[in-house]
Amino acid sequence: MAFIEPLVAAVLGLLAGGLVNMLADDLPHHGSVGAPHYPDGARRPFLGLIAFLTGRRASPAGRRLGWRYPLVEIVLALAFAALAAAYEIDVQLVFYLVYVSVFVLVVVVDLEHRLILFVVMVPAAALALLDAIIAPDPRPTLVDSLAGGALGFGVFWVFWYGGVLFNRARFRGEDNQEVAFGFGDVMLAGVCGLILGWQSMIFAMFITVFAGALGGLVWILSRVVSGTNYAMFTALPYGPYIVFGTVVMLFFRDSVQTLLWRSWRWS
Asked: Would the pTM count as exceeding 0.70?
């Protein structure tokens, strides 16, 4: 009957996905959350997946829900089930489930609005510190967590400020706010450092940089192949790459370390 726990976790993941969709709809615009609604404000089912399956994808006025709604709910259902199957049912699993939900929210909002919200980062930082205080090994200690937060925040602050200085020089004082890194990315990196601790955060930053470079290259090639004009210095959402590096080190740290050790021995 071990499958029951992942099944229950999957149901919880669907519900978490519904909540993430509500937050992604309202927080960027209002800073607060209302009832689930269609793009025109009409009430909709809590779960986008239910709306799709029951033929209620569109509001009475014809405004349709995007595919983001069922995709977010399905992704979180699968993620919750996988984590429940991989880890013991304890307080650490609860932290992991919340982290994954926050990461999905960050990715959705950053892709749709180019924002990483302060109202999301502050509770996430508090949660990471609580995790460091009460969770057992091998989670980072409070000191390691604080060091990781300082490392992530500091390194990405340098990137962000370098982009600000570059923009000022490039536009010679013209009003332009387009930068490669937003300050939200700096806050996100700090939170991810709190979650990982300083040692894992070092590897997460390398993964983030390489993934971001690869993603940028793929985006440029896709523009070229599709015949769409490419503007130099176009800023792309970077939050998903920070999340990717963090998730890799949070859940696959031992595999990454083993891979690096084998690569070092073969070199």
From this structure: yes
